[in-house]
Design a protein that fits this description.
The complex is a heterodimer of chains A (252) and B (469). Chain A has 252 residues and is α/β, with parallel strands linked by helices. Chain A contains 13 helices and eight strands. The two termini of chain A are 26 Å apart. The chains are: A alpha/beta (252), B alpha/beta (469). Bound molecules: iron/sulfur cluster.
Chain lengths: 252, 469
């Protein structure tokens, strides 16, 4: 399958290894990966800042770049949620294109499970790993079941958990509470640094209590926040992006 | 750059212990809510049903208000209309003054908090006793409620023990909740008996019958309504439901969402005054019709004040309610702030959310809280701040791939500098309590070029990867 890669600006600049790992995983499951070097940002920071006219410019760019792709895969749930859920609110004109591109833009684990039906990518990662659910992944993309959604009866794990459970020798654990926000929130993390770090520290304590050596997430941004807190406090499990775990194979 | 709530959080919950206490107490309510609602069959249908009733009522509120007034009058109540908080306070005060009332027993009412009724009456020589235990605690402490269901949730039992020792003469060092509750109860009972009027809030009002519905866990509203001969019920105009048969859905959702109880301990339907008594109903607008006229934001009027969105909110959990500096804190408070206040601080509250969406997911009446916060943001970017040019500049850069790469490269060069705190470092807010990630090395784009060349040349010479192939 041909896959267009969307590497969000912050991954491109700050977590390039996550992008490389994504390519590795996709190639390993037999995808042909294309990368358009003209891509930059989906516009998420401008949506959350309320700067919707700037968000529209970047959204239109995104739609232009990816309109023709069968599948766009992105290692960041919050960017995918922006494209799929928020673009519709920006009044971007052609709603058909907005819908189509949104429906064909996938988060990595979502793509592996829901499109390819291949949760097992042949990875091995012999560690205890705590999962930090991305809020946007959980509630906007339904990559798992949020703990408050007691009305949902389906108990099958969502795609993010499914791919991790398929990794050999990986012991998956969830913090308690299992899916509270890490406190990053993009712009929020700098507009409310005290609150953001209060939330993050409490999550870090919950994650450390699982005894995990690593913490993983679909979103590198949440991991930066936890990593930054952990490094300052010299404390907590080591952050590793989901794609990087999936890219670990037997021979590494 | 940090916004008012961030600074206020340091005052409202100043120590690690106070944050931890609040976080745990509030998260516990959320857990009870989960357990209780998990046992309700067809929960989703029930929520949709409740949301539809609210939506319908708000869509025709004028008609239902007229019907309610008619029916309440027919049942013998006197109905008063107040455009705003001062009008509400005046009406209540006049009623009391005309009857020579000096002592009032008041049960929990967020509306009277919103209107500032207590200080208004006290300044005019009327003693108001809050009879809800939590309200009584904050009243004795001289502060406002920090939660809309559990007013004193921010206080630890030791603090409450010390407060009661100071104010109602409980034994020193006593902080067993059962003992303290009994002491408060005896003290309040005395005050109930001497009160000359009762003021209550209203949870729901039924248009068809002109009835009021009051839910409490302590029965204090019932004493307030029935011991004195005059009962004044204060309610926002959004509390209406069309018919009595619409009520059960809300009763089932309210207590479960709030505290995990199947139903509040006392649920009283009041239609007209008791024999020989008086019932006055004060219907308050105070900005509600303005909100009703705002199609993007009117959904917030469906709120039944269950507090579930507060209890689940990662922000509220660590700030406490006082940090919000208004009657209703948490996500619903942040949605209501710009609708009811015109100060700059209010316009920054919609930013006080990570947009995790848990609030919208727990709301029993389906209010799209985080969607409404986003909509407020679009009306006042950055909380009305002066840094819009930063956003413009950012978008200019991101719309031009070459410029974007150039800026990215420069930031990478400056990385060691950005990682340290110095006056004027744009990364300072991040560096509060956090490090920047280690130097990221080359960008993905440049690595991908190298990587794909390498990968292509490796192809055929050796097989890569694991057993999945
Ligand atoms: S907004 Fe919803 S969850 Fe929050 S208090 Fe109101 S009804 Fe409850």
């Amino acid at each position: 399958m041909d896959v267009a890669l969307f590497i969000p600006c912050y991954v491109d600049q700050l977590a390039p290894s996550v992008g490389i790992a994504t390519v590795e995983v996709l190639e390993r499951v037999g995808c042909r990966v294309r990368y358009d070097p003209g891509q930059t940002c989906c516009g998420q920071p401008f949506v959350t800042a309320g700067e919707w006219s700037q968000a529209r410019r970047l959204a239109r760019r995104y739609l232009d770049r990816f309109a023709g792709a069968d599948a766009v895969v992105c290692p960041s749930a919050s960017c995918v949620a922006t494209v799929r859920r928020r673009y519709a609110e920006l009044s971007l004109g052609d709603t058909r294109v907005v819908k189509e591109v949104g429906a064909r833009t996938y988060e990595l684990s979502e793509f592996l499970v829901r499109v390819l039906n291949r949760p097992d990518v042949g990875a091995r990662f012999p560690y205890r790993v705590a999962l930090l659910q991305s809020c946007h992944g959980l509630r906007e993309l339904h990559l798992g079941h949020p703990s408050e959604a007691v009305e949902i009866e389906d108990s099958a794990p969502g795609p993010t958990e499914a791919v991790l459970r398929a990794v050999r020798d990986l012991e998956l654990v969830l913090p308690d509470p299992p899916d509270e926000c890490c406190g990053f929130g993009g712009l929020f993390s700098v507009q409310f640094p005290e609150i953001s770090t209060r939330i993050g520290r409490s999550r870090l304590v919950a994650l450390a209590a699982t005894g995990a050596s690593h913490v993983t997430s679909t979103d590198a941004s949440c991991l930066f926040h936890l990593e930054g807190l952990g490094r300052r406090a010299a404390f907590g499990p080591r952050p590793i992006h989901l794609a990087e775990i999936l890219a670990w194979s037997e021979e590494r | 750059m940090s916004l008012p709530l961030d600074r206020a959080a340091r005052v409202a919950l100043p120590t690690t212990e106070s944050v931890q206490h609040h976080e745990t107490a509030v998260a516990d309510l959320r857990r009870r809510r989960d357990d209780a609602l998990a046992r309700v069959p067809d929960l989703q249908a029930l929520r949709e049903h409740a949301a539809a009733i609210k939506g319908h009522t708000l869509g025709d509120l004028g008609t239902y208000l007229e019907r309610f007034e008619e029916q309440a009058r027919a049942a013998g109540a006197v109905v008063h209309w107040a455009d705003d908080a001062p009008a509400h306070n005046r009406i209540v005060h006049d009623l009391l003054a005309e009857r020579g009332v000096h002592r009032v027993a008041k049960s929990k009412s967020m509306l009277t908090e919103e209107c500032g009724l207590n200080p208004y009456l006290e300044a005019r020589g009327i003693e108001v006793v809050d009879t809800d235990l939590g309200e009584r605690i904050v009243q004795l402490e001289g502060e406002a409620p920090s939660h809309i269901v559990i007013p004193a949730i921010h206080r630890r039992r030791q603090e409450i023990g010390a407060l009661f020792h100071r104010t109602v003469g409980s034994p020193e060092g006593e902080h067993d909740p059962v003992v303290l509750t009994e002491i408060a109860r005896q003290d309040l009972r005395r005050r109930f008996l001497s009160a000359e009027a009762g003021i209550t809030g209203v949870n729901f009002a039924i248009a068809e019958t002109g009835s009021l519905v009051v839910c409490t866990n302590e029965g204090n509203a019932d004493l307030g309504m029935h011991l004195p001969s005059i009962h004044i019920a204060c309610m926002g105009i959004e509390k209406l439901l069309p018919r009595l048969e619409d009520l059960p859905a809300f009763l089932r959702l309210l207590a479960r969402s709030a505290t995990g109880q199947a139903i509040t301990a006392y649920t009283t339907v009041v239609t007209g005054p008791r024999p020989g008594g008086e019932l006055h109903i004060v219907l308050v607008d105070n900005g509600r019709s303005r909100l009703l006229a705002d199609p993007e934001q009117r959904g917030a009027l469906a709120c039944i004040r269950c507090g579930a969105c507060l209890n689940t909110c990662p922000v509220y959990r660590r700030t406490g309610g006082h940090a919000y500096n208004q009657t209703v804190p948490g996500p619903i408070g942040a949605v209501l702030a710009p609708a009811f206040r015109s100060d700059r601080e209010a316009s920054t509250l919609p930013f006080a959310s990570t947009l995790c969406g848990s609030c919208s997911a727990v709301c029993p009446v389906g209010i799209d809280l985080h969607g409404q916060l986003l909509a407020w943001r679009a009306r006042a970017p950055f909380g009305g701040g002066r840094i819009r040019w930063v956003a413009r500049l950012g978008a200019e850069v991101l719309a031009r791939p070459r410029l974007y790469r150039l800026v990215g490269g420069l930031a990478r060069l400056a990385w060691p500098l950005l990682s340290r705190r110095w006056p004027g470092n744009p990364a300072n807010a991040w560096l509060e309590g956090r490090e920047l990630p280690p130097h990221p090395g080359a960008s993905f784009r440049s690595r991908f070029r190298l990587w794909s060349q390498g990968s292509r040349s490796r192809e055929g010479s050796r097989s890569r990867g694991g057993s999945g192939e």
